[in-house]
Amino acid sequence: MPIADLLQLITFLVLLVLLTKPLGAYMARVFAGERTLLDPALRPVERLIYRLCGIDPTQEMRWTAYTATMLLLNFAGLLLLYAILRLQYFLPWNSQQLAGMRPDTAFNTAVSFATNTNWQNYPGETTVSYFTQMVGLAWYNFVSAATGIALAMAFIRGLTRRSTRYIGSFWVDLVRSCLWVLLPFCIVGALVLVSQGVIQNLRPYTIATTLEGGRQVIAQGPVASQEIIKEFGTNGGGFFNANSSHPYENPTPLTNLIEMLEMLAIPAGLTYTFGRYAQEQRQGWALFAAVFALFLAGFGVIYASESAGNPILARLGVDQAASALQPGGNMEGKEVRFGIINSALWANTTTATSCGAVNTMHDSLTPLAGGTAMLNIALGEIVFGGVGAGMLGLMVHVILAVFVAGLMVGRTPEYLGKKIESKEMKLAMLAVLVLAVSILGLSALAAVTQAGLAGRSNLGPHGLTEILYAYTTTTGNNGSAFAGLNGNTPFYNLTLGLAMLLGRFVFFIPIMAIAGSMAEKKIIPPSSGTFPTTGPLFVGLLIGVIVIVGALTFFPAYALGPIVEHYLMLAGRLF
Predict the structure, then answer these.
(1) Which of 7, 222, 389, 443 has the most other CB atoms within 10 Å of its CB?
(2) pTM given for the model
(3) Residues of the chain falling short of pLDDT 50
(4) Of the candidates 303, 291, 94, the residue with the CA atom closest to the CA atom of residue 204
């Protein structure tokens, strides 16, 4: 690795570690109701919201009421967003007179933003009005992100409280997530992005005349306010079709660094928040260490594969060596200004979280790099995962790891002093199976039907990878794409929408049931037979369980897609 690339990687990782503790400690104070510097400005707003909505903030909920409230709010918002998308022609701030979306595309888009997926089957600048961007999409970027944070905090309470049926109030957690966590950081972050050249206006599109005398339409709009929450809330939907490779969304090296850190900030911080609630900070750092190691492993594979270049292009005489005039490696589908290091680091970051924003086209990645990005998502979006949702997926694997450890020492497994029994194991496996059934089942359906096969732009293993990636990214609520797949058809709009709903809301139900069950348990003092969950042994076991579950579930499918494509590339063959 060139010294410049190494320095950029080290800078990014050091900044991430430095952000984790203060942000995690801040979130712990916010959700514990402790005083913060923002309280004088935000407490009156919070009380006003509760008064207007008739909410009693002191009334906590059982897991059933908490989950049902979350589902009702999100499905009501989904219907409202669907109506906005269909009727946008008649709504204000539509200077381009853009028509409403057709029914299947509107359904897919509404589900996408409601589930924090932000999969986009449309070019944003030519399909969506300013009103839809701000009132529909940006609003749901906040709500879906806040929903994930709220559920994570409810689950953390379930693990750390004792002998209670209550895990908090969904309304309080949602409001505090928006007011104290998302909104202040997004206001400051948007101003920073504007200072770097990200646009923020309500102007009509600019008509320019090129040097050749042609006519070019340059899109305008409220981009900075959308860009900041799409990264900080791990949403990922771009204002422009080119997403974060567009200079209006990501113009400078500084914005590129800031936007990558935004994706990881809350998921990483929540591991520290968890340690605060567990009253043993080593518990949080153990989780951080496990996902940090997986993050580095994913980046290593993507960077090495992209830096090595494409042997097929080399045989054609294309120079892929790094020099003063070119970054070298596989630069297909990448911005030259980002090079291999920032393209690989972004691709790994956006798939390790559930963000899905892209600054390079994943369909152009080498097979191993594309397969690794897909595996990041398939593991359950836990490295570090989406805001809140990543913590939930990670805790499912923690329960599995503790259960395996219990089998090894021949005693009932425990975590944070609470026994993990058959009920929790069944619910954890149900959550894992929901993701596997959605990804593999719907991919199989697309691979054997004419409507599914018609969306491919490639034959052979790469065509299968395009299909696998589409259902992996939507089930994992990631939203990035192998752009070679035409997903804007009734078949894909409906089946990908189903995958998003399964991966978000059906996945959440058994996890919240675990939270309710664990909250009722008594805490047992540790004994000589208790397996420690704070040391390197547990970190290694957790990593092993995550990798083995992912490998056993998805390896057969990957063997027919990116793995065989890799060997075909080495042999100089294309389909």
Answers:
(1) 389
(2) 0.92
(3) none
(4) 94
